[in-house]
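Work package 3, deliverable 3.1, input record:
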Amino acid sequence: METGCIFCDIAHEKTSTELLYKNQHLVVFKDIKPHAPVHILIVPKRHIRSVNDLTEADQPLVSELIMTARDMARQAGIHESGYKLVFNVEHGGGQMIFHLHLHLIGGWVQQQG
Ligand code: 5GP
Ligand code: ZN
């Protein structure tokens, strides 16, 4: 747990942020400033700064983040219409919060024809 890290605070339930899902390794909650009808963040409980800081030992965790995102997409009813899974990496990649997180983004209106 990193002092002053908002995602550590959320992951350890020290804020009023509602968790959509949690288990031993990760938490899931809605993005405060959604970029799409569905915008959910999948966040490891452990403070990892960015994708660049992952190690070999984190492979099961990364897999779990992705599989949980897939399950949340199904739960949100967007698994068939489709969605994006995004890791923003470092400042140049648009990362603003330096605690690893996976964005699940989707739910746009389907185009007809
Ligand atoms: P990044 O740009 O680091 O990949 O994404 C960080 C995301 O976290 C942004 O989409 C931003 O809206 C979201 N965010 C930042 N602070 C909070 C917060 O306090 N609560 C929630 N639910 N989302 C946040
Ligand atoms: Zn943190």
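The chain has one domain: 6-106.
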